[in-house]
Design brief:
The protein is mainly beta and 334 residues long. It folds into two domains: 221 residues, no CATH class; 107 residues. The protein has three helices and 22 strands. The strands form four sheets. Strands 2-3-4-5-6-7-8-9 form an eight-stranded antiparallel beta barrel. Strands 1-12-10-17-14-15 form a six-stranded mixed β-sheet. The longest helix is centred in the last third of the chain and has 15 residues. The two termini are 41 Å apart. The N terminus is likely disordered.
Length: 334
């Protein structure tokens, strides 16, 4: 099969160089008014420099991811919209100096990138003329991680010094396996999205390419502090909830290699009789029930049950008790 490889930015390389947060200059006006930034995707200029722009999907990194590859250097991180521009520092953690950019619209579909005390770039949307009769699948990254792909159904990652293009260009339908991982401490894989919609929770997926698509591998950072959200309840006190949470923690402690990120109370609605009847089944006589959800990270090595270093979101925990007694863990999972 003929494979056409476009000259595109390798976001995985960018992210390995990153790790810094951005800082908005105090002299910038952050009032965006009614202006909406809409120019996203891949762009190139006449010198084959490449630009990638995408809206962040991570709450802890609001704004826009901007990646710039100028043939000799790569910079990329999340920056904010400031007025009618995107503005911020793309300097990687541990690197000297600054790489502050102002990104603005230019012409009908172009993007102007001005590097503070540096060069100015005039970008146009990446030329896809060669793909007019074929398919283009882009593999983007939100967070700190990297992606790989291989034709067929086998997952593959190359050695750590080589990173694949983040775009698959083919001229006829084919099956590809997409893989995502992170080697950065504190970061874990969350999900794949396809064309802006949730697609898969596993880091390795097989996709039948029969049209163009935009995939994003989403990664999430955890600082080591477990968060507890008691929500609002007219039924249970915090003491009631803490006693139930302790039962969950006792069970979770038996899960070797897993890392708990948060525990959240759902709602008093989950204490309704319909759920109590379900938990009682034909054997129990519970009079109260409560539900929590958690997010957690799987072990750092693959197991027979789960993929390595993935985030499981909204894992349900159902507990019940009889007449104010001890909570019992009755059900958990999806």
């Amino acid at each position: 099969m003929k494979r056409l490889f476009g000259v595109v930015i390798s976001l995985s390389m960018i992210f390995l160089l990153m790790g810094c947060t951005f800082e908005i200059s105090k002299h910038k006006d952050t009032d965006n008014g009614s202006f909406e930034w809409t120019r996203t995707g891949y762009f190139q200029d006449d010198n084959m420099n490449t630009l990638y722009i995408d809206e962040s999907q991570l709450d802890e990194y609001p704004g826009w991811f901007v990646g710039l590859y100028n043939t000799s250097e790569m910079h990329g991180w999340y920056i904010e919209q400031v007025g009618e521009t995107l503005y911020g520092d793309l300097t990687a953690e541990g690197e000297d100096g600054e790489f502050i950019v102002t990104v603005s619209e230019e012409g009908e579909d172009g993007v102007l990138v001005e590097v503070e005390n540096g060069d100015t770039y005039h970008f146009k949307p990446q030329d896809e003329t060669a793909l007019a009769e074929g398919y283009s699948v882009t593999l983007n990254i939100d967070g700190m991680g990297e992606v790989a792909y291989m034709e067929g159904t086998e997952a593959q990652f190359t050695d750590d010094d080589y990173y694949q293009s983040s775009q698959i260009n083919i001229d006829e339908p084919a099956t590809y396996t997409l893989s995502a991982r992170t080697l950065d401490e504190g970061w874990s894989f969350v999900k794949w999205t396809k064309d802006g919609e949730d697609y898969a929770a596993e880091p390795t997926v097989t996709y039948d390419v029969d049209g163009s698509a935009d995939f994003v591998a989403v990664f999430e950072f955890f600082d080591g502090n477990v968060e507890y959200d008691y929500g609002e309840s007219d039924i249970y006190t915090q003491e009631d909830m803490d006693s139930a949470i302790n039962v969950i923690l006792d069970e979770f402690d038996t899960w070797e290699g897993y890392e708990l990120h948060n525990v959240r109370y759902i709602s008093d609605d989950c204490a309704d009789d319909i759920y109590l009847e379900w938990l009682n089944g034909n054997e129990n006589n519970y009079t109260e029930c409560i539900e929590f959800v958690t997010d957690f990270r799987t072990p750092l090595e693959d197991t027979e049950v789960v993929s390595a270093n993935c985030i499981y979101k909204d894992w349900e925990w159902w507990l019940a008790r009889e007449d104010g007694g001890q909570w019992e863990l009755v059900s958990y999972g999806y």
